Amino acid sequence: MERCQETITPLAHSLDKKHAIDASFNEVDYGEWTNQPLAQLALTDTWKTVQNRPSLAAFPQGESLVQAQNRIVGRIEEIRVQETGNVFIASHCDMIKLAVAHYAGMHVDLFQRIVILPASFSVIRFEDFGCQIECVNDSGSITDFFPDTETASGTEMTTRAAKEMGIS
Predict the structure, then answer these.
(1) Cα-flanking dihedrals φ and ψ of residue 144, to 5°?
(2) Fewer CB atoms < 10 Å away: N or C end of the chain?
(3) H or E stretch covering 88
(4) pLDDT tens across 95-144, in order?
(5) What is the number of domains present in the chain?
(6) What is the CA radius of gyration of the chain?
(7) CA 79 to CA 23: how far, in whole Å?
C-alpha cells in the first residue's frame, strides 16, 4: 500500500483530485506464501500450478488468482458506473496484469504473458461500446494519453513512483 500511495499522491495532488485507499486494489492475497523465499515456493506443487494453469491456483490460506481478478475487475466496473472522467488507479503487478488480461479477453491462464515493470502505467479507455487498451507497461509521459490533463509541474511519472501502477 505504501508504494501505491507514493505513486498516486503526487499525481492526485498535481491534478487537484481526491484519492483514497481501496482494498479492492490490494495485492493478491498470497496467504501462507506471503514473504516466503521464491526458491522455497518453487519446490511446491502449487508453484507448478501457478506457472502452468494459473486459473486453477489457490494460495494456501489466501485467494485464488481468479478471485483476485474478480475482485479488481468488479471494483473497476463499480467505479465505471459511479465516476465520470479519468480515474487513476495504483495497484500491484499481478493485479494490473489480471485486469488487463480480463479487458483484453485473455483467459487467466495467459495473464503471465503480460509484463508490468516498476513505475510503469497502463491505460484502458472505456467507452459506451466497450473498452480499448491504449497502452500496457508504458514509462513515458502520462500526458501523451490524456492531452487535456495538465499537471501542476508538467512532470511525468518517474521511477520514484510506486513499483507498479495501473491507470484506467
Answers:
(1) -65, -30
(2) N
(3) strand 88-89
(4) 999 999 999 999 999 999 999 987 788 989 998 888 999 999 988 777 67
(5) 1
(6) 16
(7) 14
